[in-house]
Specification:
By secondary structure, this protein is mainly α. The protein contains two helices and no strands. It has helices at about 15-75, 75-90. The chain is rod-shaped, with a radius of gyration of 43 Å. The model is unreliable at about 135-145 (pLDDT under 50).
């Protein structure tokens, strides 16, 4: 028995059952550990994604609420009128006096009340406001007397 240690198995000898069982158990424990680490990282990643989505949802809900408020303000005449008067006041402007704005065609067709505003005049739908021909002086931009 030259060159061999006393405890080494002879060449071609089989490993016994206790060694195989130990190797299989170690492989199972290692696989279980890898699975545990993988599952924990997946749970943490899902948590971060959920947190980001919740923050985005909160931001979008706040934006939706702001847009609803803006829409209600723009569709409510009273709120729109108050906002416009407030902005005009900050700029140092005032709304025109009653009767200072005439409908196209002259003072005989002037809108006399809010009930006529936006309605049809002589069967025609309203048009955008523009200068009345002959009423605006080209030199000063003010109405002629």
């Amino acid at each position: 028995m030259r060159g061999r240690s006393y405890n080494a198995p002879p060449p071609g000898a089989r490993i016994g059952w206790p060694g195989v069982k130990l190797a299989v158990a170690a492989a199972l424990v290692a696989a279980l550990g890898v699975f545990h680490v993988w599952s924990r990282t997946r749970v943490l990643e899902a948590g971060y994604q959920l947190s980001a989505l919740q923050a985005e949802h909160a931001r979008l809900v706040a934006a939706q609420d702001q847009l609803k408020l803006e829409l209600s303000m723009l569709t409510s005449f009273r709120a729109l009128d108050q906002a416009t008067r407030g902005k005009l006041a900050r700029l140092g402007l005032a709304p025109p006096d009653r009767g200072a704005v005439w409908a196209a065609g002259g003072p005989d067709r002037a809108i006399t009340g809010p009930s006529q505003a936006g309605g049809k005049v002589d069967g025609h739908p309203p048009r955008p406001a523009g200068p009345i021909l002959g009423m605006v002086s080209s030199a000063q931009g003010a109405p002629e007397p």
